[in-house]
From TrEMBL:
<comment type="similarity">
    <text>Belongs to the HMG-CoA lyase family.</text>
</comment>
<dbReference type="InterPro" id="IPR043594">
    <property type="entry name" value="HMGL"/>
</dbReference>
<protein>
    <submittedName>
        <fullName>Hydroxymethylglutaryl-CoA lyase</fullName>
    </submittedName>
</protein>
<comment type="similarity">
    <text>Belongs to the alpha-IPM synthase/homocitrate synthase family.</text>
</comment>
<keyword id="KW-0808">Transferase</keyword>
<dbReference type="InterPro" id="IPR000891">
    <property type="entry name" value="PYR_CT"/>
</dbReference>
<dbReference type="InterPro" id="IPR002034">
    <property type="entry name" value="AIPM/Hcit_synth_CS"/>
</dbReference>
<dbReference type="InterPro" id="IPR013785">
    <property type="entry name" value="Aldolase_TIM"/>
</dbReference>
<dbReference type="Pfam" id="PF00682">
    <property type="entry name" value="HMGL-like"/>
</dbReference>
<keyword id="KW-0479">Metal-binding</keyword>
<dbReference type="GO" id="GO:0016829">
    <property type="term" value="F:lyase activity"/>
</dbReference>
<keyword id="KW-0456">Lyase</keyword>
<feature type="domain" description="Pyruvate carboxyltransferase">
    <location>
        <begin position="12"/>
        <end position="281"/>
    </location>
</feature>
């Protein structure tokens, strides 16, 4: 393996969110058996963090109605860290009962997006996190709480979102009892300069509790934004296999960075992910069959890995 440039992390985690962020935004409802196959194959390809679904009412998101079953399956795979999204205390109670490892509570830094998406102000969501923390502590469960600050670079409804507001809300989430915080570019407004600027300050505030970067590839800058976040010291990223998905409440948003392209970029730079890319591409082929008719994204699957991928640096220069 080549070595990563000195200023970049030596290893990184790709959290698969295709089963949640991806599937919630497309029309196809994948049967539970196929989702289980997806989780199993992703695990066999080396993925160790998977967001398997969301505890929201099935009438709102019928695509994700089987989340409890998926958590139960994921917990049978040794050392698989299983996360779920929860919009409120009721969802959190389900996540605690299901014994997930981590629950993500989304907060929109855009006031307008927050009202449209969650029918709450950002500060209402902070208050909900405090209730979730109290419920978690009372339950004795070890599940982690992640506060995810979305629309951190602006949104289609409100336009501009102040960086100071993003950082204020991130601090408020930590103060309310979130164990981890993350930042999301929900609608693909960020560029690498903006990411580096915001993420450097976010890491200064949250330290080790800064958990994850979540980038949508709406305008083709997803991987560039990951690189900027790596430069800021962040080494965990959400990604969707085949780049599926978007955001139902952010018109125009397309999918997350594609898992396979991100695994390739990190691997090519010598940043360890533990992922077997050939296995991941084989899984992508199967998922593409399951999702026939849906728009998929990504580049690596078309060209395959370069012949030089994974060779030691000295072999390349010899
Ligand atoms: Zn997203």
């Amino acid at each position: 393996m080549t070595h990563p440039p000195a200023r970049l992390p030596r290893s990184a985690v790709i959290r698969e969110v295709g089963l949640r962020d991806g599937l919630q935004s497309i029309a196809t409802i994948l049967p539970t058996a196929q989702k289980i196959e997806w989780i199993r194959a992703a695990y066999q390809a080396g993925q160790r963090e998977i967001e398997v679904g969301s505890f929201v009412p099935a009438r709102l998101l019928p695509q994700l109605a089987d989340t409890a079953e998926l958590v139960a399956f994921a917990k049978t795979l040794p050392n698989l860290f299983t996360s779920v999204l929860v919009p409120n205390l009721r969802g959190a109670e389900n996540a605690i009962a299901a014994k997930a490892d981590l629950m993500i509570v989304p907060l929109s830094a855009s006031h307008a997006h927050s009202l449209a998406n969650l029918r709450k102000t950002p500060d209402d969501v902070v208050a909900e996190v405090a209730k979730i923390r109290a419920a978690r502590d009372a339950s004795g469960a070890r599940i982690l709480i992640e506060g995810g600050v979305g629309t951190a670079f602006g949104c289609t409804l409100q336009g501009h979102v102040d960086k100071s507001e993003v950082l204020r809300l991130m601090q408020a989430l930590l103060d309310a009892g979130a164990d981890r915080v993350s930042i999301a570019d929900t609608v693909g407004y960020a560029d690498p300069g903006m990411v580096r600027d915001l993420f450097e300050d976010a890491v200064k505030i949250a330290g080790d509790r800064f958990w994850c970067g979540h980038f949508h590839d709406t305008r083709g800058l997803g991987l560039a934004n990951v690189y900027a976040a790596l430069e800021a010291g962040v080494n965990r990223f959400d990604a969707c296999l085949a780049g599926i998905g978007g955001c139902p409440h952010a018109p125009g948003a397309s999918g997350n960075v594609s898992t396979e392209d991100l695994a390739y970029m990190l691997g090519s730079m010598g940043i360890e992910t533990g992922i077997d890319i050939d296995r991941l591409l084989a899984l992508r082929t199967r998922v593409a069959e399951w999702l026939a008719g849906e728009t998929l994204h990504g580049s690596l699957w078309q060209a395959g890995l370069p012949k030089t991928f994974g060779l030691p640096a000295q072999a390349l220069s010899a």
